[in-house]
Description:
Helix content: 40-55%
Distance between the termini: 21 Å
Number of helices: 12
Radius of gyration: 19 Å
Strand order of the largest sheet: 2-3-6-7
Amino acid sequence: MVDLTHARHDRAHVLAPGLFRSLAPGDRKRLKLDVTYQFSDDERLEFRGFDPLGVLEMRVLQGIVAMAGPEGLLLEDEDKASSGGKQLMLALFEPSDSLMQTAREKPTSLIVKDSLRRLAREIGMEEGGKNLKLIREAIRRLFGVTVFVCQGKREVGTRLLSSYASDEHTGDLFVALNPRLAAAILGRVPHARIDLAEARALGSDPARLIHQRLSGWIDPGKSGEATAETLAGYVWPDEAPTERAARARMTKARKAVEEIRSIGWRVDETRKDCWRFIRPKLP
Length: 283
């Protein structure tokens, strides 16, 4: 049974242009992930990886973040850790491992211990073996991403997912989120609320990408305005190769707007190809 209502997501991971994008056949072999996002005046995030991240990776991360909310286990500095957190550290590292000392100094992270089938349900996918394989591949791509957070002359690097393990036979899933994602989930920094019921109801990849980006800067009960060109940029961050391709992207963006309207957002066209999106208030 699907029971999670939303994901408390880090705004920078949600809003970074091109972090998640629509991928055409062959793009995974042709493209690499190289995204830099100036999140604020004094904070820059850089995402680096061998594989680009598509809509599936976005949906999987939404689900993992949502599952970490009410059910995640804290992994804290060892000196301050709960007994459960200490046991998790012992399970992750051998006592003699030099990484143990590094782990003691890391900020709080969150652990998801659940199943691939549960994750599939939460993001609105069927639980068949093919989909579970796709989800495992998506998690591997997420794990392969390095995130550098730069503040002034200070720089900290982590993986997008700090740790990952799964068992194809049992379907068990273990994922540790990076400290920045954990901080948003725990309410220690401002977060973006991604409504999972809305996300599950969407049928196209452009609508899913646009929904996450809109949810990143329009809070529940608030509104914001965006053009078709801006919305298309949420889906395809690179320049269209031809005029025909550019027109096709605009058409898909308009269709995505109708999908956003169909899930309960109020959408008013303020001028041609420009809309004001009014997000539903929280119940």
